[in-house]
Amino acid sequence: MREVYCALDRLIAYAHEKLGLSQRNEAYVRNTLLDLVGLESYEETGQMYDGRSVSALLNDLVAACERAGLAVAPDRLTDGVMGALMLSPEAVEEAFAAHMAISSAEATEWLYSYCVLSDYVKKEKLDANPRFTAENGLIVTINRAKPEFRDPKKAVSGNSVKGGYPKCTICRTNEGYFGRNKRTLRTVSLELDGERWFWQFSPYGYFHEHGIAVNEKHIPMHVDRSTFVKLMQFVDMFPHYFIGCNAPLPRIGGSVLAHDHFQGGGETLPLHRALVSVALRHPDFPDLEAGVLDWPGTVVRITGQDAQRIADLSEIVREAWCSYSDAARGIVSEDKDGVHSAVSPTVVRTERGYEMNIILRNNITSERYPDGVFHAHPEFHVIKKESIGLIEAQGLFILPGRLVEELADLEALLVSGGELPERYADYAMIFGELKEMSASFTAETAHEAVKKELASVCERILENTAVFKTQAETAQFMIEKAGFIHD
Q1: How would you class 71 by CB atoms within 10 Å of its CB: exposed for 0-12, middle for 13-18, buried for 19 or more?
Q2: Which of 71, 97, 326, 382 has its CA 20 to 30 A from that of 416?
Q3: Do 281 and 231 share a structural domain?
Q4: Are 195 and 209 in contact (CB under 8 A)?
C-alpha cells in the first residue's frame, strides 16, 4: 500500500501549499482520505509536493489505488479527496470577504484561482479546447469537455435531479453533495435588489472566469424590472465583469429554466464591442442614450448613469416586445402552447455608465422550422443544433466536440481533392462553400478556410435568431411600440 500512502502524502503536502490546509487539521483530513480509499492503516512516507498539477497528483492516486486492488470510482474518489483537502465553505466565504475589502477584482481572481487549484474548475481541459477569434469579430470555440445535446428535451433532462434533493443542478444545496460529485463546489453570498443570491464558477467555463449568479430561492427563471436592477447591482460590485440573463424560454433560453440565475465573467464578448447603428432616444428619458446595435441578432442598447432610470426604460422595451406579434414576420408572442417572446439582457460598466444590451428573442416553431423559426436553421445543424443561448447571442459560439474529428476530415478532403463521403452528407452545403474558396489547398490553407467557414456559419446562425432582419426594422419597432424617436 506504500504507493497509495505516497500519493496521499503528496496531495496533503499540495493542500498545505496551495489550498490553505492547516497543520492542526492534517491528521483529521488524512483519516478522511484513508476512509475514501478504503484503508484503515497508514505509514508516513515523507513525500513532499513535487510541483506537478493537481490533476497529475490525482491521476497518481487513482492509478495507485487500482494497482493496490482498492475498489474506487475515479471521479467520485478524486472529488471526495479534493473536497476534504479544501477549505470549508464558510472559510472560503471569509477569505473571499477579506479580499473584497481590498478590491472585488482581487476577490474574484482569488476565488477563481482557488477553484482551479482545487480541481473544481477543469482548466487543463478548458485550455485544450480549440478557440479562435474570427475576422468578423465572433469567437468560436469547440467544447471537448461536455457532451452535445441535440435534443432539447434530453438537454433539459440532463440537468434535472431525480429524487428532489437538491432540487436542481444549481441549487446551493449542491455545495458538497456527493451525488453529483460536488464536494469541491464553493460559493460566495451576494445580495441583489434585497434578495439573497450567490456566485459560483463553472467547472467547464466557456470564457475567462465564467460563472453564474444564482437566486438562493429555487424559483423559475424570469425577466422583469427587478432583473435589470439586479444585473446593474452585480456590475456595481464587480465592475470588471459582465453579467446577463438567458431568455426564460424553452429551446433558446437557459438549460436550467426551473431556477433563476444569471451568467457572467471576466471577458469582453463581441457583443460588448458592437456599436450603435441607429441612434434613438426616448422623450421621457432625456438623460439616457439608446440605439439599435450593428449586430447580426436583434439587440438594442440603453446607456446611462442612473440604474433606476435604465431599469424603467428597459422594462418599457421588454413589455413592448413581449406583447408584440407580427404574422408577416412570423412573430407570435403567445398562443395555446404558451409564451414565445422574451428578452435576454446583458450589462457591462464603462466610462459611459451602464450599457444595458437587450436581446429580443422568440422561440416559436413552424412546420418548416420545427426546432425554431428564430433558431439555427436546419442547414447549419451539422455545426450547431443546440440552443443559441445568452453566450452565443453575444458572439461566443460553443460548438460540439465531434467537430474536431469531422472538420479535420473535411480539411483532408480539401487537400486531397476527394469527394464528400455519404456519412458526411449533412456537410454538403458547407463543403461546397469551402471548395469555392480556392482551386487547391494545402494543409494550412484548408485549416484557415474551415475556420473562416465556421465563423461565417456562426454569423448566419445569429442572423437566423434575429426577430427583425434589418436594423431599420428594429428601430421602427422601437419607435412604434416602445415610444422611442430618432436621435
Answers
A1: exposed
A2: 382
A3: yes
A4: no
Strands of the sheet containing 131-133, edge to edge, are 131-133, 139-143, 396-400
C-alpha span between 374 and 51 (Å, rounded): 50
In a shared domain, residues 19 and 138: no
46 and 145 share one domain: no
Q: What is the pLDDT of residue 385?
A: 93
Handedness of CA 213, 214, 220, 226 (dihedral sign): negative
Residue with the three cell numbers 506504500: 2
Same domain? For 191 and 291 the reply is: yes
Buried b (16+ CB within 10 A) or exposed e, 162-178: eeeebebbbbbebbebe
Q: What is the CA radius of gyration of the chain?
A: 25
- The pTM of this model reads 0.95
pLDDT in tens, 440-478: 999 999 999 999 999 999 999 999 999 999 999 999 999
Q: What is d(CA 353, CA 356) in angstroms, rounded to the nearest whole number?
A: 10
- Note whether 72 and 190 are same-domain residues: no
Task: Supply 190's cell numbers.
Answer: 451576494
Domain that holds residue 281: 123-397+467-486
Number of domains in the chain: 2
C-alpha dist (Å) from residue 449 to 133, 400, 406, 434, 453:
14, 19, 14, 7, 6
Residue by residue, DSSP assigns 123-180 as HHHHHTS-EEE-TTS-EEEEE-SS----SHHHHHHTT--TTSSSSSTTSGGGTT-GGG
- Among 57, 85, 113, which residue terminates a domain? 85
- Of all residues in the chain, the percent with pLDDT exceeding 90 is 93
In a domain, 236, yes or no: yes
> Hey, what amino acid is at 91?
A
Q: Coil, helix or strand for 262?
A: strand
- Angstrom distance (rounded) from CA 216 to CA 274: 33
113-127 pLDDT, tens per residue?
999 999 999 999 999
**pLDDT given for residue 155 in this prediction:** 47
| Whether pLDDT at 159 is above 60 | no
pLDDT at 253: 72
pLDDT band at 158 (very low <50, low <70, confident <90, very high): very low
Dihedral through CA 430, CA 432, CA 437, CA 442, nearest 10? 90
Mean pLDDT, rounded, for 68-72:
94
Residue 118 located in a structural domain: no
Which whole-number Å values give the CA distances from 106 to 92, 103, 131, 202, 436, in the listed order?
14, 5, 27, 18, 50
The answer to whether 412 touches 419, Cβ cutoff 8 Å, is no
Distances (CA, A) of 453 to 109, 155, 270, 447, 486: 35, 27, 18, 10, 36
Query: Are residue 127 and residue 79 in the same domain, yes or no?
Result: no
